[in-house]
UniProtKB/TrEMBL annotation:
Designated name of the protein: Glycerol-3-phosphate acyltransferase, chloroplastic
Entry keyword set: Acyltransferase, Chloroplast, Lipid biosynthesis, Lipid metabolism, Phospholipid biosynthesis, Phospholipid metabolism, Plastid, Transferase, Transit peptide
Naturally occurring in which organism (per UniProt): Acacia crassicarpa
MF term (GO), any: glycerol-3-phosphate O-acyltransferase activity
UniProt key word Lipid biosynthesis: yes
Reactions this protein catalyses: sn-glycerol 3-phosphate + an acyl-CoA = a 1-acyl-sn-glycero-3-phosphate + CoA
Gene Ontology CC annotations of this record: chloroplast stroma
Length: 454
């Protein structure tokens, strides 16, 4: 297999040749002031937000401002956020002041015993601490103790703050970057769980193609499978160095569970979201069905308005939820796409009055944070967290008109197009699986999927 000349915007990537609406349900350390906000801290720790440019770029050039660092540090230590009202004196100071694992876990129990934390949330906080700790330890990082305590201190603090004063998501939620940067918090929490030496990206040059289209005011839709609550962070972590604009400006179509679960909300607050109720959970509570339908109608209007404005990049999982293993074989494969979801999205793009493009995106990251084996009605699933390699791949657009040309009816055309998108995602997924789990690495590249590493 011959080599294609490297793309100029990502010189670290190696690339072999390449010829040719229902919605988804995401030891004692130094002091916080010297550690969380120091420019010399590990990349795995929570750091201050970089200065961000509004322009498009194929390369990252982030820097930090000392005044911004101190301002955010002051805000954090004062226990305030943009949606936060002063809680009782015990407050999140319990977690921010913790300097050891024992103090952090004791803080959870103290707040639960004092009635500030519901017992189920407190239990979930303690369970996720141990799961996260075990995963980071498996990475072999010599600073694992420090990383775990630092990241979990911030995470538990944010959970507690939201319990005291719950944040309510709008139909169209914009990532909360200031004065506390929830996006960066999510990136730095998930980063130590990713084995980057065993992670791969397929067809990276297409991301630069997308940036060029976004510059021109076009819209981009990513039709994707969905594996874990960490999917948005995984996508951004794999492309943030070469494609920071896409990483930070992606809008995700998100189900109600990720904006209501106390352990998921802090991560969701850092992403741009169109919030919907998943078809899989639409009938969980019969008396709420009508309210959910009206809410979804509002979200569709928000989506239409967003697309009319142009230069939007939106991720959607038309399967309506996360992939799950086959109950007999235990094998993970992308969940099948819902044709009505695909068609609704396609028509929204076509009717926006702005040029639009639909790409197929494949994600392989289930070992990072796998969902429960079956779809659960109740909020508050147990988190099982691991350190593992991951994969991301994107494929060129598939023409709807060409796919529909041989179909005898609109319904057949809709099904054929959906199947074509799904087949593309499955093909890419299998290549990523060979690279990560088959230990083939870059040699797993095919004629249609050119692998590189972040």
């Amino acid at each position: 297999m011959t080599c294609r000349p490297p793309v100029t915007h990502a010189p670290l990537f190696f690339c072999p040749s390449n010829k040719n609406m229902s919605f988804l349900s995401l030891s004692s350390p130094p002091s916080l002031s010297s550690h969380f906000f120091s420019s010399s801290s590990s990349d795995y720790l929570f750091l201050p937000p970089p200065l961000r440019s509004a322009s498009f770029s194929c390369s990252s050039s982030s820097s930090s401002s000392l005044s911004k660092v101190r301002a955010q540090e002051h805000l954090l230590m004062e226990n305030r956020s943009p949606n936060y009202l002063a809680p009782p004196v015990s407050s999140s100071r319990t977690f921010l002041n913790a300097r050891t694992e024992q103090e952090l876990l004791s803080g959870i129990r103290k707040e639960a015993e004092g009635g500030s934390l519901p017992s189920n949330v407190a239990s979930a906080m303690e369970q996720v601490y141990h799961s996260y700790k075990n995963a980071v330890y498996r990475s072999g990082d010599p600073r694992a103790d420090e990383i775990v305590l630092s990241n979990m201190t911030i995470f538990l603090d944010r959970i507690f703050m939201d319990v005291v004063d719950p944040f309510v998501f709008n139909s169209h939620h914009k990532a909360k970057r200031e004065p506390f940067d929830y996006y960066l918090f999510g990136q730095n929490y998930i980063r130590p769980l990713v084995d980057f030496r065993n992670s791969y990206i397929g067809n990276v040059s297409l991301f630069c193609e997308m940036e060029e289209k976004l510059k021109k005011g076009h819209n981009i839709i990513l039709m994707s499978n969905h594996q874990t609550e960490a999917d948005p962070a995984i996508i951004a972590l794999l492309i943030e160095k070469s494609f920071p604009y896409i990483a930070e400006n992606l809008t995700y179509v998100a189900g109600d569970r990720v904006i209501t679960d106390p352990l998921c909300k802090p991560f969701s607050m850092g992403r741009n979201l169109i919030c919907v109720y998943s078809k899989k959970h639409m009938n969980d509570v019969p008396e709420l069905v009508e309210m959910k339908r009206k809410a979804n109608a509002r979200s569709l209007k928000e989506m239409a308005m967003l697309l009319r404005s142009g230069s939007q990049i939106i991720w959607i999982a038309p399967s309506g939820g996360r992939d799950r293993p086959d109950p007999l074989t235990g094998e993970w494969i992308p969940a099948h796409f819902d044709a009505s979801s695909v068609d609704n999205m396609r028509r929204l793009v076509e009717n926006s009055g702005v040029p639009g493009h639909i790409y197929q995106l494949a994600l392989l990251c289930y070992d990072i944070m796998p969902p429960p084996p079956q779809v659960e009605k109740e909020i508050g699933e147990k988190r099982v967290i691991s350190f593992h390699g991951v994969g991301l791949s994107v494929a060129p657009e598939i023409s709807f008109s060409e796919t529909a040309a041989s179909c005898q009816s609109p319904e057949m055309a809709k099904e054929a197009y959906t199947q074509a998108l799904y087949n593309s995602v499955s093909e890419q997924y299998n290549v990523l699986k060979s690279a990560v789990y088959g230990q083939q690495g870059l040699e797993a590249s095919t004629q249609n999927v050119c692998l590189s590493q972040p």
